[in-house]
Amino acid sequence: MNLATLPDRRAKQDPSGPSIADDNINLTNAEFLDAVVRAAAVLQAHGVSTGDVVAMMLPNTASFVVSLFAAWRLGAAATPINPSLAMAEIAYQVTDAAAKVLIAEEPLAVEVPGTAVVLTSELASGPSQPEETVAVPEDALALLIYTSGTTGRPKGVMLDHANLNAMCAMAIDAFELGGADHSLLILPLFHVNGIVAGTLSPLLAGGRVTVAGRFSLKEFWSRIEQSRATYFSAVPTIYTMLANLPPEVAPDTSSVRFAVCGAAPASVELLNKFESRYGIPIIEGYGLSEGSCASTLNPLNGPRKPGTVGLPFPGQTIRIIDANGNPVADGEAGEVLIQGPNVMRGYLNRPDETARTLVDGWLHTGDIGRLDEDGYLVLVDRAKDMIIRGGENIYPKEIEAVVYQLPDVAEAAVVGRPHTLYGEEPVLFVSLTSGSALDQDQIRAHLTDALAKYKLPVEITVLDELPKNPVGKIDKPSLRKNLPPIHQA
After folding, report:
1. Contact at 8 Å (CB) between 85 and 454?
2. Residue 396 backbone dihedrals phi, psi, to 5 degrees
3. Are residues 284 and 418 in the same domain?
4. 407 and 353 assigned to the same domain
5. Do 204 and 287 reside in the same domain of the chain?
6. Three-state SS across the chain?
7. What is the pLDDT of residues 111-131, one digit of tens each?
8. What's the CATH number where 418 sits?
9. Are residue 271 and residue 405 in the same domain, yes or no?
10. What confidence score (pLDDT) does residue 384 get?
11. What pLDDT, on a 0 to 100 scale, did the predictor assign at position 151?
12. Domain range for residue 455?
């Protein structure tokens, strides 16, 4: 499966067949190829060639998919950027990835040295005559997905074409995707799930994709009815909102074969409530950006076990180890390790972190889980400290690092507070240096300038001193223990 030439193959096989649609346009296979060819010519005119990186800071639109394939057509890699990031975060990713070009909808407020900005309005201005397609080897870098970590700064997960091809083949097989399938994409395209499960897999299988803009609770079911989508992928927060709609909301869901749930654990009650109301089976899975998208999945046609995240994809192996690196006994909990052709090449320019995460071909996830008697993975805990808010990963260390830029802050700790809709929200505790007059509003203003909105603590508490454990480290469990859950209004 050569991803770089997929638009060409689809246009040759069925030029008038549907391929990509969004809120404003609906492209046939021939029109999709034409758009990719023109965009590739524009990128090439800006000096993009084999081995370069193209950054894409775009909302959910067909332009994102066109840009992705345009970069691959030239032998370049792509790095998606969350458009809601602060300017400093955007500049960091562009610079760290050494992106030659940044594709955006509007000019940036701040110039990033060494990177040209190409607006989406310019992408159609290139010539429509296809240039010679660059031969893209399997081990060529395809995606740089930036993920935060417990060490603070986001790092680029390097996925090559072999990784994506392996992951897509697994998804196509697991979901039994074919030419009649139609993905309604409501998850962000800057996440690997939206790219792999929501876009590449259906296109490679001969199906089509409708890229929805922001998720709209009011319009979601009408979008399903109009598009006749056969599947979609979402996070527990979205399923909770859909399950809680008024009883009079009774959509036609007959086109939908299944829905996928990932990013955070879903309760058995939520799964049962959604499925019994809408008649759509929810397929729970588990994976990481470092694993190209997914590593386990409850079977589409087989026993689905609510409360688990399913069985390993064929071609992947799951191992559970103890703190000393030894395999645990059946049914016991330990760190989840993953092995397979979908596992990343490593972190960009971070050999030490790569060496800690990839050991003898095994991806150390940092997540705690156990395998039940049938081999289904049950997640017991998450990577240390990570907060998942509505499907978005938030790493406290990244927020704390920004807080510590304030000289009046002596100690800082971010923990997750339970929330009935979002799952968790970040809250911040600080202690101040002697004599400081720093207040919550000043801390919040500082954070707002440096962090994306979804990362901002919903509450800031100033204490005389933060609690410590016996070894003198900040005792986050005790901070969490005193946080009552927030219920949706």
Report:
1. no
2. -50, -35
3. no
4. no
5. yes
6. CCHHHHHHHHHHHCCCCEEEECCCCEEEHHHHHHHHHHHHHHHHHCCCCCCCEEEEECCCCHHHHHHHHHHHHCCCEEEECCCCCCHHHHHHHHHHHCCCEEEECCCCCCCCCCCEEEEHHHHHHCCCCCCCCCCCCCCCEEEEEEEEECCEEEEEEEEEHHHHHHHHHHHHHHHCCCCCCEEEECCCCCCHHHHHHHHHHHHHCCCEEEECCCCCCCCHHHHHHHHCCCEEEECHHHHHHHHCCCCCCCCCCCCCCEEEECCCCCCHHHHHHHHHHHCCCEEEEECCHHHCCCCEECCCCCCCCCCCCCEECCCCEEEEECCCCCECCCCCCEEEEEECCCCCCEECCCHHHHHHHEECCEEEEEEEEEECCCCCEEEEECCCCCEEECCEEECHHHHHHHHCCCCCEEEEEEEEEEECCCEEEEEEEEEECCCCCCCHHHHHHHHHHHCCHHHCCCEEEECCCCCECCCCCECHHHHHHCCCCECCC
7. 888 899 999 999 998 887 766
8. 3.30.300.30
9. no
10. 67
11. 53
12. 387-481
357 and 472 share a domain? no
> In the prediction, which pLDDT does 420 show?
87
Residues lower than pLDDT 70 in the chain: 1, 130-132, 148-152, 264-265, 381-384, 469-473, 487-489
211 within a domain of the structure (yes/no): yes
Q: Do 354 and 401 sit in the same domain of this protein?
A: no
Q: Looking at the domain assignment, is residue 281 inside a domain?
A: yes
Asked whether residue 329 is domain-assigned, the answer is: yes
